[in-house]
Amino acid sequence: MLFNSYAFLMLFLPITFLVYFGLNRCGCYRAASVALLSASFIFYGYENWRLCLLLAASIGINYLFHAALTEGRINIVWYRKLLLFCGLAVNLGILFYFKYLNFFLTNVNKLTGSSFLLKNVVLPLGISFYTFQQVSFVVDSYRGEMRQYPFWEYALFVSFFPQLVAGPIVLHREMIPQFTDPEKRRINYANLFSGAEYLILGLAKKMLLADSFSKICDICCESGGYSVIVSLDSLSAAAVILSYTLEIYFDFSGYCDMAIGIGRLFNFEIPINFRSPYKAINIADFWKRWHITLTRFLTTYLYIPLGGNRGSKWKTYRNVLIVFTLSGLWHGADWHFVIWGMLHGVMMVFYRTNQTWIDRLPKWLTWFLTFGFVNAAWMFFWLESEKMPLRLFSRLFCGGLGNTWTTLSQGFCEDSFFVSFVMMFAGAETVQAVSQIYMLIWLCAGLLICVAAPSTHEIVAKKHRNQIYYLGLAVLFFAAVVHLSGVSKFIYFNF
Question: Which residues make Cβ contacts (< 8 Å) with residue 371, sequence separation at least 6?
């Protein structure tokens, strides 16, 4: 089920809210938690109920490892290591089968000339997120960093619907204690209002901004092809690059805001996963702001176990490259994701080796260079053909002045109420000019919001409100709901 759908906003969310707090008000605390757990499975299996079977099996198997590792009588070192190894093997094995098997077989066939048949495997929603979440849980169980939790607490921790499909990757100590906190079983009107703020702002980012910029990107890769890209002029190529950069920003930021907001409606604090990353002044700063919980997971459970920065500088750089390469592979089973991760890894190594003089540069310059690199790297993340980003860059610098800007602006303004209104009173040439200016204004406004506007967290944290603010929220909610008729999934649903 999508956050940005009538079924979720008008039925699922209000019914779940009323049932959960209604049961809590009656003193049926366990029943309320079971209802929230059941609702999470309904949310997950809304489009394909079979996905719930895999999720339930994964939860059950991992809980058995947790129970065995937290059993106080078992202190045999080799036995605990064996349990840890088996737990990691099961989780990564399931992830490999569903996400990477066909990628592996395809590359084996290319390298060896063999003819292994590809499997007809459907990628389960959110498998990368809930697998990593459970890996952290098994590792923490092995390290003795938790007590043995009841099964229902663990199941709710994994499947809690606001963060199940696209994160954040939460830790047990952040969420499980909240499920049993008596203070969180009553409706909190402060949380209710701030949660609604997050929800509305996140929904507006997705429906009004991300989906608008996606129109430009879709024009360039209609039906899986990239014929438009090779004919772009320089200005249009810059618009396309910026459009995807803005689309993925507002898409992921919108989801993170909505996840926090929905969690807060139920009095649960979900960790911040996104903090204005396009304001970053260097690549290390960027990864402290973008997908914060994934960075934390990879640092805690991969980078540090590999040795972190405790060895020589060459080993440190090796560890950085390994982490970023696997980060790219985590996002998707394709070489263009791996290239994207490696590019960030190389840039991180470059920054670390030259940090002294880089940090002395003017902040506006380091921001510009960082933002430019992130823009360029996103093209490898987006375009499935590894050669196509290079062709796009060639059009950026050598495309000259053409007329593809007109094509892009027409596609961008196809459903625009404003442009449709202008068409009622103006001729074709005027409408064409208005469409081009309209798209340019949107691109500039989107960029300005990313790099200069306060984040959602800063907006919600402000204590003083006025009527204009409330009116603005209402207008945003109305406009976003109107756009719900065009169903669009979040980009991170693919991972």
Answer: 278, 280, 451
| Tens-binned pLDDT, residue by residue, of the chain (495 aa) | 888 888 999 999 999 999 999 999 998 989 999 999 999 999 999 888 888 999 999 999 999 999 998 876 567 788 889 999 999 999 999 999 999 998 888 888 888 888 788 888 888 888 999 999 999 999 999 988 888 899 999 999 999 999 998 879 999 999 999 998 988 999 999 999 999 999 999 999 999 999 889 888 888 776 455 777 888 888 888 999 999 999 999 999 999 999 999 999 999 999 999 999 999 999 999 999 999 999 999 999 999 999 888 878 899 999 999 999 999 999 988 999 999 999 999 999 999 999 999 999 999 999 999 999 999 999 999 988 778 888 889 888 887 776 777 778 877 777 666 666 666 666 667 767 777 888 889 999 999 999 999 999 999 888 777 888 889 899 999 988 888 866 678 888 777
In the chain, where the domains are located: 6-187, 193-282+359-494
**How far is it, in rounded angstroms, from Cα 334 to Cα 326?**
12
Task: Single out the residue of 253, 272, 241 nearest to residue 374, CA to CA.
Answer: 241
- Cis omega before residue 168 (within 30°)? yes
Q: Taking the mean position of all CA atoms in its chain, how far away is CA 478?
A: 25
Q: How far apart are CA 381 and CA 341, in angstroms?
A: 9
Identify whether the C-beta of residue 299 lies closer than 8 Å to the C-beta of residue 348: no
CA–CA dist 179, 36 (Å, integer): 10
Task: Check 331, 344, 457, 483 and give the catalytic one.
Answer: 331
Please, which residues have CB within 8 angstroms of residue 278's CB and are 6 or more apart in sequence?
Answer: 245, 249, 371, 374, 450, 451
CB 129 within 8 A of CB 165: yes
Is 457 catalytic? The answer is no
452: number of Cβ within 10 Å: 10
Which of 292, 276, 495, 446 has the alpha carbon at shortest distance from 370? 276
What kind and span of H or E run contains 399? none
Between the alpha carbon of residue 225 and those of residues 228, 242, 303, the distances in Å are 8, 20, 38
pTM of the model: 0.91
